[in-house]
Amino acid sequence: MSREKENTAIRRRRVLAEVRRKRGYVLTYHRLMAELDPALLAAYDAFYTRMTLVGRVLSPAEKETVWLALIVATRARVGTLHFRRAAQAGMSRQAIADAVAIGAVCDSFDAAAFADEAFAEWLPRGGAVEGYLRAFEAARGRVRPALAEIAAAVAHAGRRSGAAMRIHLERAFRRGARREQLAEALSFVLLHCGGPTMLAALDTWLKSAKGGRFPAPYGRRG
C-alpha cells in the first residue's frame, strides 16, 4: 500500500470512529462517504452535529417530540435512534406515545380534505377538516399546544402537504410559538426528507406569511 493510500485509510478510520463516538452508530451512507472521501464525511458530520446535536432554541425533549412526529408521519422505520434520544432526553413512554400520536393523526388529514371536497353537499363547510382538528387536539395528549402545532407543521412538511402545513403554522403562532422555534424544527426536514421537500416547505411558509398573520421564516435582505 502506498503512503498516500495508507494515510487515506487512517483518515477514514478516524472519521468513522468520530461519527460513532458522537452518535453511537455508523450508517451505510457514512461508510460510503468515508470510502469516497474521508474529508466529505468529516464535513457532513460537522453539518449534522450543528444541525441536530448542538443545542439551539428547542430543548432536547422538544426536538425529539418533533422528530418522532415527523418519523411516524413519513413512516421512516429507520428512525428508531430518535426514540432512544427521546428516552435519553427524559421523555416518558406516555410523552413518546403522544408525539407518535401527533404524527399518526397528521396522516388522516388527506382523508379529511378529500371528504370535504368529494362530499361537500353532505357536510358543513370544512366540516371534515374541523373533525381532523378535533382529533388532533385529542391526539396531542399532554404535549403543549404550541409544541404540538410545531410538530404537526413539520410532519406535514415532510409529507409535502402544504394545505395542512399552513393550518398548523397559523395555529402554532397563534398558540405562542416563536419563529426561531419553527425554523429550527423545520430544518429537520432537510436531513430527513431532502432538499426538494425542504424547499417546498419553505415555499409554503413564505406564501402563507404574505398576508401578515404570522412571521415569515426570515426577513428581507439584500
Major beta-sheet overview: none
Oligomer: single chain
Give the class from helix and strand content and strand pairing. Answer: mainly alpha
Shape: elongated
Kindly report the CATH topology of the largest domain.
Answer: AhpD-like
- How many domains make up the 3D coordinates? 2
Fraction in beta strands: under 5%
CATH superfamily of the largest domain: AhpD-like
* Global mean pLDDT: 92
Instruction: Tell me the total number of β-strands.
Output: 0
Distinct helical segment count: 12
N-end to C-end Cα span: 52 Å
What does this structure look like?
This protein is mostly helical. Helices cover 73% and strands 0% of the residues. It folds into two domains: 1-54; 59-211, AhpD-like (Up-down Bundle), CATH 1.20.1290. It is elongated. The protein starts with a helix and ends in a 14-residue tail after the last helix. The model has no long low-confidence stretch (mean pLDDT 92).
Q: Main traits of this protein?
A:
single chain, 12 helices, mainly alpha, about 220 residues
Write the SSE topology.
Blueprint: H1 3-23, H2 28-36, H3 38-53, H4 60-73, H5 81-88, H6 93-106, H7 109-118, H8 127-139, H9 145-158, H10 162-174, H11 179-193, H12 195-208
Helix pairs in contact: 1-2, 1-3, 2-3, 4-5, 4-6, 4-9, 4-11, 6-8, 6-9, 7-8, 9-10, 9-11, 10-12, 11-12
